[in-house]
Write a structure and sequence with these properties.
Shape: rod-shaped
Number of helices: 2
Number of strands: 0
Order of helices and strands: HH
Helix content: over 70%
């Protein structure tokens, strides 16, 4: 028995060993390619989702900015009306 273990590899055994190694290598490469493909699909899907969120946020910021400017303009108009009413009240007191 010991003599069989110490014998060098014969052609058939070498081919079998080599074929097994190639099979394992191909399985490994295909597995890695599958993982890489999965990661890329996830990445591009997330990238698209992030772009959509950014676009939506940009629209929301623009809308809020327009609302804020409108409110500021309305506040300015009201301030001018209040000042005008105060001036009229002071003028009416002085004339009486």
């Amino acid at each position: 028995m010991a003599q069989e273990d110490d014998t060098p590899l014969r052609g058939f055994e070498y081919t079998k060993l080599r074929g097994w190694t190639i099979k394992n290598t191909l399985g490994f490469v295909i597995g890695i390619a599958s993982v890489i493909t999965s990661v890329e699909v996830s990445y591009f899907g997330l990238k698209q989702a992030i772009q959509e969120v950014k676009y939506t946020q940009d629209l929301n910021y623009r809308t809020m900015d327009l609302r804020l400017k409108t409110l500021e303009n309305e506040q300015l108009i009201m301030r001018q009306e209040i000042d005008q009413l105060k001036l009229e009240a002071v003028t009416n007191k002085q004339t009486k």
